[in-house]
Amino acid sequence: MPVIRELELKDRSLVTSHLRRRPPVVSELTFTNLFAWRNHRPILFAEVEGSIVFIVESRGGDRTRRVVFGSPVGEVSPLEVAGSLGIEIEGFVRIPKDTATILRDAGVAVEPDRDNWDYVHRVKDLAELAGRRYHKKRNLVNQCLASYRCEYETITPQLLSECLDMQERWCQARQCGLDPGLCTEYAAIRETFTHYGDLHLIGGAIRVDGRIEAYAMGEELSPGEAVCHFEKAMPGMKGLGQLITQWFALYSLSEFEHVNREQDLGIPGLRRAKESYFPHHMVEKFRARLRPDITLPPLVDPRECEKHTQA
Description:
alpha+beta, Aminopeptidase, seven-stranded mixed beta sheet, 14 strands, 2 domains
């Protein structure tokens, strides 16, 4: 029987070695993503026949519920994994099209998960903002540069406290404590900055008149493709959001051909913003229920967010 245990920082080398042998397509399957969100999306993992599988555990209600998170990383089949773990698995979430096809062909109920499709862009497009379709973006960037003294810096250990201070100010401005989505994201960002060096991330920040007012961070997802985990710009500075998108691509992601900028979560404003950068392609994702009579449990546990709000 496979040994199932909670994901810890010490597991980075093991997890990353599996992901390098079989690079993922979906943005969620990086150690950083799995680790940073684990307090709100409890992650277990197991090695099965030379493959590795991640499991999300939902602890709310009267029982613990579990789903496989993403495709198994390796040669083992998804249904084989579900039957070999020795625990009840209710289904699969954040799976790409090829895994969804395998499950559908086996008679499993599969449905699209449009809110979690990933937006993948050419780095060159974001860095250059060339052509008519990026005219508005260029104008906003130029307005920002004309209005403020902006400087780009690579995020180093010496810069982390300033980036965290900026995130605190951003959350105060956006009232993160009143929004469960922003609150859980805030906790994941803090976790990421806390372990930034251990996670081997790529990051950049913009100083405006000497103060950090925007940042972005990500890492390699697969050969030739990066993933951008978080990107923030302080509100009230016109064009600063567009500037950090451009400069992060230009100065920090130049070795990559594509960058996955993750999903829009079904939020209308976020969807419009992501679509406005004209993605090169989308990574379609699906969820699958091993029993057609159940509803899959929510992935994010807001309880830690509630504690933060109360504090």
